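pls ignore typos typing on phone
magnesium ion + seq
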Amino acid sequence: MKKSKISIVVPCYNEEESLPIFYKRINQVSKKMKMVDFEFLFIDDGSIDQTLNQIQEMRKKDPRVRYISFSRNFGKEAGMFAGLEYSTGDYVAIMDADLQDPPEMIEKMYEEITTLEYDCIALRTNSHVGYSFFRKIFTKCWYLLISKISSMQQIPGARDFRLMKRKMVDAILSMREYNRYSKGIFSFVGFHTKWIEYEAPERIAGKTKWNFWKLFRYAIEGIVSFSTAPLIFSAFVGVLFCFFAFIAILFIIIKTLLWGDPVGGWPSLACIIMFVSGIQLLFMGIIGMYLSKIYMEIKNRPHYIVKETEKDLEIKSC
Ligand code: UDP
Ligand code: MG
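k done
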């Protein structure tokens, strides 16, 4: 009988310190799991350190190593998308290169996906070791908000680390949107997912690639991609304000008819104008966010641009 194949997709951005350790550990796992074939697919996301050279060296020694190198940094979402597109395995795992997703867990995940009726084994964590206090609070609040405003199931602490069957991977790839928020996409495509909780260790080396601004943009991406609640909220507040304005108009008309004094109260009027203008600008901003996403979608730009793959390396060495 033909052996099954697991593709390990690893997005890497400036991971020269972590990569050799990652490869050593995943290689050990593959030696233990003799019943399956492996493919290690590294996505070099425009790294400016020795990441690509290291992947090329690995490829020279191990034909199971494959890679795609982007022409610049396109972000982890693009890296994961490319990895899924290029993967050829019957099962595909997505893992970080920094060993926060321990390679040793693949064995248990494979056992569960083959013996139990699941299409995906996914990991979640509550530990968040190494994340700043501020990032932990921000993440908690964000999950609280998104679970209220989106119909998609959002698992707190869900990582991108997961092992999926090919049919789930194909479903994910059928969603070609440019503004990608994978955690929402995984949930949108459905399939039977088993969640395993684990203690995510600290990054083995290097630094996290997320700063506050990147994280904030990603959080907005999640909301705009999977919820229209901000638009509905804007409309609701608009109706509420019209109602208050109507009451205020009635009050002023009656007051003027009974006691006169039509010009009094201009400071409060100035405050109201400023307040309402602020609300209007805020809601225009919300509409603008959705509009900007539509703008990027209709441009239909590629998710990533490939500079080289392992095939180019073979041509060079011929
Ligand atoms: N990554 C990437 N492109 C980027 C940023 C990150 O491919 O623009 C990769 C990174 O090399 C790592 C994974 O995505 O393998 C997770 O990144 P990181 O550890 O910085 O995220 P965190 O664990 O802090 O959420
Ligand atoms: Mg990490």
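The longest helix spans residues 266-299. The pocket of magnesium ion (ligand 2) is lined by residues 96, 98, 100, 203, 208 (CB under 6 Å). more later
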